[in-house]
Design goal:
The complex is a heterodimer of chains A (546) and B (143). Helix content of chain A is 43%, strand content 13%. Chain A is built from 23 helices and 13 strands. In chain A, the strands form three sheets. In chain A, strands 10-9-13-11-12 form a five-stranded mixed sheet. A four-stranded mixed sheet of chain A has the order 2-1-3-4, covered by helices on one side. In chain A, strands 7-6-5-8 form a four-stranded parallel sheet, with helices on both faces. The longest helix of chain A has 18 residues. The radius of gyration of chain A is 24 Å and the shape is globular. Chain A starts with a helix and ends in a 19-residue tail after the last helix. Chain B is built from six helices and four strands, in the order αααβααβββα. In chain B, a hairpin with a 2-residue loop joins β3 and β4. Chain B is α+β, with helices and mostly antiparallel strands and 143 residues long. The chains are: A alpha/beta (546), B alpha+beta (143). At the A-B interface, α2, β9, β13 and α18 of A face α1, α3, α4, α5 and β4 of B.
């Protein structure tokens, strides 16, 4: 495969698409599929056949505004239809070339205007199981350009210049990490993609893997070239069966096209990727635990150093990046580091995908430039809190993150700004809570999560989270005292300082941030035995019928 | 196992395959996998018990999984779960006495935008209501 061949494929796809007068794109992502997008697509195909019009019905990945699903977009006019079901298929096909179906049409200009799409640029435009669709949108061009025109150092330099930071949550500069692995000795190195999206409430990695799997593979191949690796692993949660099957198809197609395997693009570069399945353990998102899991062992973290960049998989230097990080690589190589660095804020460059969920009108995936105000994401893109309730807090970073109150909504989103207010960027879950959520209860929920997910290797995390849970449960049941609160704070500090891995160190975050911004709720629970949101049952603890 | 070249590091893959074929991992199958891949039985058992996804008990005829992710929790999945427990008289992770229905919780299935989510035999159903779920359970109780 050479660049010329790539362009030929792209050209033939364009010619093929030009044969059709209309394109009807049906979102087949999990959220839409669970509401009958499958039947809808079949109905559309039948209606198109019957009408005799020249229509291409395409299945695509997530378009973004999941709360409007199932979604359909008609090109070239870019008309969005929301809440479409199979019975509307005929009306949509009949409207092609004429007036759009106004009853189904939805206005998403406000929703899309503020967004900048880099990672999600192909989402909703390509069929994830067709490699040619991806190639037609400049896919694999970056890989072949890198292989034929750039040195490995040149690639690393470009990534460093872009200022890209790890999108898995830590925010470690990607260029620096690649440089370390490249410098590490030894001829056997590994590239690993962390697709263990354990953070409940975040699903951007799933969407990328399902909607645009080749983008991840291309990013990994470029990384492998840059650091000198020839073998890659994608670690995916077993809870994402669709992602696994899409990636398997994508790998097979890429091998068939000669974009994976030996002597890619007639260069000495060899690279292939294997898929590894997780089995439901949150801690496996931690890099050393993930490596243990790939090796077929229990996913328990190891103390660092040595970092995986020096001694990782089977003791070899290993590069680990998140799905979204790899998804950013191809556009950076294609457009240059400066282009990427021009987006975003001072120390956080580029864009970030957030999964907007909870009590908000437009749930779904959004991609925004770094530095955008939280208020813009929630009120403009998200459409605000529905049903006349008032906004109370937004939770970022999953169980390791914190809750940000209403008065801090003018905060610009970046790694450092979120850290400064006691939360973290995390993988990008953003859960909006309104006045019906009790913050003490929410903190208890997260601590319970960390307690059950703790691998049990180090004591602060294993015993500490259990003690935090006991204290919070007492407060929720109205049996807490002010001493409990002091004890809780000191316990949080201890766990934070002494835990082995990220899971333990960040597990007190939900408690600390709610204590900081919503202390009055804790005090209400303790002193007045009252839950302001009416969530906690103070009189009789909920009995479980066994 | 042959697909992965009997590699020891493919233990988790192999266990996945066994569980999807037989529904659960019983003593015999864990022993067999450990012997075939030449890994210590302790390691195989350790892996099975460490990961939530593996189950040592056979599941019921139908499985109701309720997502307990954050987005679902905020939208009231705890009430769904409590209602299901009341109805079936079992705890999450257990199966009814007649072997008809298993009740499970999931960490997050990634359909957070349609919270709260339940999985009926693996099929995702979004924006679930209590009535909807109870209806499904009643249908299953006789099927």
């Amino acid at each position: 495969m050479t660049i010329e061949e790539l362009e030929q494929i792209a050209e033939s796809v364009r010619l093929e698409n030009d044969k059709y007068d209309f394109e009807v794109n049906v979102c087949m992502d999990l959220a839409c599929a669970s509401q009958g997008a499958g039947q809808l697509r079949e109905a559309l195909a039948r209606a198109a056949d019957a009408s005799g019009k020249n229509v291409l019905i395409r299945r695509t990945g997530c378009m973004g505004p999941c709360s409007n699903g199932p979604m359909v977009r008609v090109d070239p006019e870019e008309i969005f239809y929301s809440h479409v079901n199979a019975s509307n298929a005929e009306a949509i096909v009949n409207s092609l070339g004429g007036e759009p179906v106004s009853a189904l049409q939805c206005d998403l200009n406000e929703h899309f205007d503020k967004q900048v799409r880099v990672v999600l640029e192909n989402a909703g435009h390509i069929d994830p199981e067709k490699i040619d669709d991806y190639i037609a949108r400049d896919g694999y061009k970056a890989l072949l350009t890198a292989l034929t025109e750039m040195t490995p150092n040149g690639v690393i330099h470009r990534i460093t210049e872009s200022g890209l930071r790890g999108r898995g949550g830590g925010g470690y500069p990607t260029g620096l990490k690649w440089g370390t692995v490249a410098k590490a000795g030894g001829d056997l190195k590994y590239v690993v993609c962390n697709g263990d999206e354990g953070d409940p409430g975040a699903f951007m990695d799933r969407s990328v893997m399902e909607g645009d799997p080749h983008r991840v593979i291309e990013g990994m191949a470029i990384a492998a070239y840059a650091v000198g690796a020839s073998k890659g692993f994608i670690y995916v949660r077993a809870e994402y069966p669709v992602a696994v099957s899409r990636l398997t198809t994508a790998l097979r197609e890429a091998r068939r096209r000669g974009l994976l395997g030996n002597s890619i693009c007639n260069t000495p570069f060899n690279f292939d990727v294997e898929i590894r399945l997780g089995a439901g353990a949150f801690v496996c998102g931690e890099e050393t635990a993930l490596l243990a899991s790939i090796e077929g062992r229990r996913g328990t973290p190891k103390p660092r150093p040595p970092y995986p960049a020096v001694s990782g998989l089977w003791g070899k230097p290993t590069l680990i990046n998140n799905v979204e990080t790899y998804a950013n690589i191809a556009p950076i190589v294609r457009n240059g580091g400066r282009w990427f660095a021009d987006m975003g804020s001072e120390r956080s460059k580029g864009t970030k995908v957030f999964a907007l969920t909870g009590k908000i009108s437009n749930t779904g995936l959004v991609e925004v430039p770094m530095g955008i105000k939280l208020r813009e994401i929630i009120d403009v893109i998200g459409g605000g809190v529905p049903d006349g309730h008032t906004f109370k807090a937004v939770q970022t970073g999953g169980p390791s993150g914190g809750c940000i109150p209403a008065e801090m909504l003018d905060l610009g989103v970046s790694y450092d700004a979120l850290m400064a207010v006691g939360s973290i960027m995390g993988s990008g879950g953003m859960i909006v809570m309104d006045d019906t959520s009790c913050m003490v209860n929410v903190a208890r929920f997260f601590v319970e999560f960390c307690m059950t997910e703790s691998c049990g290797k180090c004591i602060p995390c294993r015993a500490g989270t259990a003690q935090m849970f006991t204290l919070l449960t007492r407060i929720c049941e109205g049996k807490g005292t002010m001493e409990d609160l002091d004890q809780l704070v000191s316990l949080c500090e201890t766990i934070k300082e002494t835990s082995l891995c990220g899971l333990g160190m960040t597990s007190p975050n939900p408690v600390l941030s709610t204590l900081k911004y919503f202390k009055n709720e804790y005090i209400e629970h303790i002193v007045h035995k009252r839950c302001p949101a009416g969530v906690c049952n103070m009189e009789a603890p909920v009995e479980v019928v066994a | 196992m042959r697909k992965n070249g009997f590699a020891r590091h493919a233990l988790i893959e192999t266990l996945h395959t066994v569980q999807s074929a037989f529904g659960c991992l019983d003593d015999d199958s864990i022993r067999f996998v450990a012997r075939s891949l030449r890994v210590p039985l302790s390691q195989a058992y350790g892996v099975v018990t460490f990961y939530h996804y593996f189950s040592l008990k056979p599941p019921g005829k139908h499985t109701m999984t309720i997502c307990a992710g954050t987005a679902c929790y905020i939208k009231g999945s705890d009430k769904l779960l409590a209602a299901a427990q009341q109805k079936l008289h079992i705890l999450p992770g257990q199966t009814t006495e007649d072997g008809q229905i298993s009740l499970m919780t999931a960490r997050c299935v990634g359909a957070c935008s349609r919270a709260p989510v339940m999985l009926c035999d693996g099929e995702v159903a979004g924006e679930t209501t209590g009535e909807h779920m109870l209806e499904q359970l009643e249908r299953w109780a006789v099927e």
